[in-house]
Structures are given as structure tokens and as C-alpha cells.
Amino acid sequence: MPRNRGGMKSLLHGTLDLLYPRRCAVCAADTGSGGRYLCWDCLIGLPYIQDPYCSICGDPVEGNVDHDFVCSWCLESMPAFDLARSVVRYRGCVGGLLQAFKYRNATHLAYDLSALLEGGVRAHLADGGIDAIAYVPLHPRKARARTYNQARLLAEQLACRLNLPVERNALRRVRWTATQTRLHAAARRANVMGAFQTPIPDWVRGRRWLLVDDVMTTGATVDACARVLRQNGASRVVVATVARG
Ligand SMILES: [Zn+2]
Ligand SMILES: [Zn+2]
Question: Same structural domain for residues 142 and 221?
């Protein structure tokens, strides 16, 4: 019987798909051969980030720049992470998708969003090696109110795709911070200073970390997380986010 389990499972899934066809979260078409909740047309129409971009933080720039171009933010503040890359711009349908994923319980989108992340990691971040995955944690009070952490969902699905461990205790949010969305770059940095800790430094030391979040805007949050991992002996920290604000 166990030998037939895979066949039974795909038969069941096939039947469920016939009874309840999956609809694209953007255009409501049948997803068909596209992603699970994003149809092929919407997937290929996403505003993917392409060259040129900052060789450290991955922020896209206009015009012609050298391959090793470094943006003014990275030059001035030297981020704690080695590299950061995002897959798409926070534009068009991406904003609506990520808002639904973060605030409106659209947790099923983690499947397709983590597929996008997987492509970005394999293309840009995997070369230096990755030992474990961490994610930007929520403050416990916010986690209770929100019931799930979208960054954790992404990290867990990405971990399966890349066959890597996700460490749920690599980072902890120890200070309540104001919502970043209405703050400017300098205020965002001050806002997250000292907001994160690593509860068990031995887990962090000597490992190459992939830090995951849904959106990177000024980079203040992922930079603060990367700084803590570095201070606790991480040998490398790379950052992957679905979108760049
Ligand atoms: Zn669609
Ligand atoms: Zn940069």
C-alpha cells in the first residue's frame, strides 16, 4: 500500500483541482500550468529586477553603471550583510499581493512567493554557500495579534525548496518598534537599533546565514538583523527578499 501513496495523493490533488480550480490571486484566471496561485501570464509579467543594481544591496539604479557599482547608502553606511537581493520591484500587483500575504491571511501565497525567492537565491546568493536560514522576527506581542509571521512562512517554504534548516531561534525581537512604513531612512535605522538579539549565540557562530524577509525598503531592518548575526559570529550573511520598495 505505501507504494501507492504518491499516486493516490496526486489523484486526490487532481480531483480537488477539478472540483475547485485554483484561481490566480491577481487576475482570477485558472492558474493552469502557472504557479499555484499566480497564473503564468501574471508570473511572467511581474516587475522583475534586472541589471543594473548595487553590487552589495541589490538596489536597482537607472542608467549605465559598472558591474561592481556600489550605491551611496552602502558606501556611507557599509551594511552588515555581505549581499542582498530582491526578486521584484514593489510595484503594480506586487504591493497588493504582499499586503494580502502580510495582513489579510493570504498565507497560501507563500508557495508561489517562495518559488520566486528560490530562483533569486539560486541565481545570486548561493555561490558563497548557505548553512542555515533565518527570518526577520515579529515582536511576541505583534505575533500574537497577527497570528502568523509572513517572513517565517517564506523562510520555512524556502528551506524545503533549498533543503536547508530554518532556525526559528536565530533572532528574537526584544524591543517593540513603531511601524516603519511612515518613517524615513535615518528614522528607520534609529527605530530598529537594538531591536533584535540572538538567544543562543552558539547556533549562530561560524555559520553562513541566509536572512529572509518579504520586502526590503531602506534595508534598516535586515541590516539590524544581519548586524546581530555578525556580532554573534556569523561567518557570512546574505539577504533575500521577494520585493524591493
Ligand atoms: Zn493571473
Ligand atoms: Zn547598495
Answer: yes
Could you say which ligand is closest to the alpha carbon of residue 73?
A: 2
Please say whether the beta carbons of 98 and 174 come within 8 A. no
Ligand with the closest atom to the CA of 31: 1
Structure pTM?
Answer: 0.89
* Residue 1 binned pLDDT confidence (cut-offs 50, 70, 90): very low
C-beta of residue 131 within 8 angstroms of C-beta of residue 164: yes
Q: How many structural domains does the chain have?
A: 2
Q: What is the CATH number of the domain that holds 144?
A: 3.40.50.2020
Q: Separation of 158 CA from ligand 1 center, angstroms?
A: 22
Report CA(36)–ligand 1 centroid distance (Å). Answer: 11
- Quote the CA–CA distance of 98 and 72 in Å, as a whole number: 27
Average pLDDT over residues 215-238: 96
